[in-house]
Each structure stands twice: as structure tokens, then as C-alpha cells.
Amino acid sequence: MVVKNKDAGNCNLCGVCNLTCPVYKVLQKESAGPRFKAFLTKKQEYKEVFFLCTQCTACVQSCPARINIEHLSIRAEMTKKGFETPANKIMRENIKHYGNPFGEIKKGRKIKQYYT
Ligand code: SF4
Ligand code: SF4
Fold first, then answer.
1. pLDDT of residue 30
2. Nearest residue (CA) to ligand 1, atom 7
3. Rounded distance from Cα 5 to ligand 2 centre (Å)
4. Could you give the CA distance from residue 97 to residue 103 in angstroms, rounded to a whole number?
5. Which of 39, 59, 71, 82 shows its CA 20 to 30 Å from the CA of 24?
6. Is residue 34 within 8 Å of residue 59, measured between CB atoms?
7. 86-98 vs 71-80: helix crossing angle, rounded to 10
8. 33 CB less than 6 Å from ligand 1?
9. First to last CA, the chain
10. Of 20, 21, 100, 83, whose CA–CA distance to 48 is shortest?
């Protein structure tokens, strides 16, 4: 699978991006952080870890080389080839059937309940 990323080759593995990534902050694993994903992107190796991203772009903003891992393009390409996480599949189905990523909204149920 090939996703062109002109930036990834400039990654020097400094790790600044990891310090700003919310996913890395929660999971505290090198394998979940943007530095590892930049490393994988450079080698054009695509794994489930690319689905662990909120799209916040904090890694791009903090990177001295402004490297954008382009998670969305990678995910789209992985999904097209049949490599996606079960959660991503459920989310896609929910959007297709109910118009939102959470699924059926039962009558009387308040949106607020999703956040409490
Ligand atoms: S992506 Fe940028 S901030 Fe992250 S390790 Fe590479 S050069 Fe450093
Ligand atoms: S865009 Fe994704 S990888 Fe980058 S900081 Fe945000 S959650 Fe982490």
C-alpha cells in the first residue's frame, strides 16, 4: 500500500510531537505516539495504530519540521484495502445508517448522555 507523504522523510525522531499528542499522553506508549507513526510512514508500513488519532493536529503544530502524518489519507487507503479496526467499521456503519458515528438515537434520549 502506498500513501505518498512528502514530509515523513524529514523526521529526525526528536519526539517533540509525542509531548503534545493527547493519545500518547493517555496511553503512554511509544507505539501509540506520532513519532512512531512518522517512523512507520517513512518506511511506508501501515498498521492499526494509525486509527489511534483524534485529528487534533497538535503533532503538526509542534513538529519543528512541520511533518503532517496525514492520518486521514492513510486510514482511507487502509479501509479501502480492508484493513480497519472493528471500531472504525462500526463507526462507518453508524454514519451510513443513522447519520452519526454513535448509532441509533433512541426517542427521548438526550445527546448530553453521550458525554456523562
Ligand atoms: S514528526 Fe516531527 S516532532 Fe515528531 S519526531 Fe519527527 S521531527 Fe520530531
Ligand atoms: S493529530 Fe493524532 S497523532 Fe497528532 S497529536 Fe493529534 S492525536 Fe496525536
1. 97
2. 11
3. 16
4. 8
5. 82
6. yes
7. 90
8. no
9. 40
10. 83
For 12, the grid coordinates are 529526525
Point out the ligand 2 atom lying closest to the alpha carbon of residue 21: 5
pTM value is 0.82
Q: Tell me the average confidence (pLDDT) per consecutive run of 10 residues in the chain, 116 residues long.
A: 67 96 96 95 91 94 92 92 91 92 78 50
CB 26 within 8 A of CB 57: no
Mutate to test the pocket of ligand 2, among 5, 16, 19, 21 (most ligand atoms within 8 A of CB): 21
Q: What cell was used for 44? A: 511506508
Residue/partner pairs of 75-78 with CB below 8 Å, 24 or more apart: 75/50, 75/51, 77/1, 77/3, 77/46, 78/1, 78/46, 78/50
Which residue's C-alpha comes closest to atom 3 of ligand 1?
63
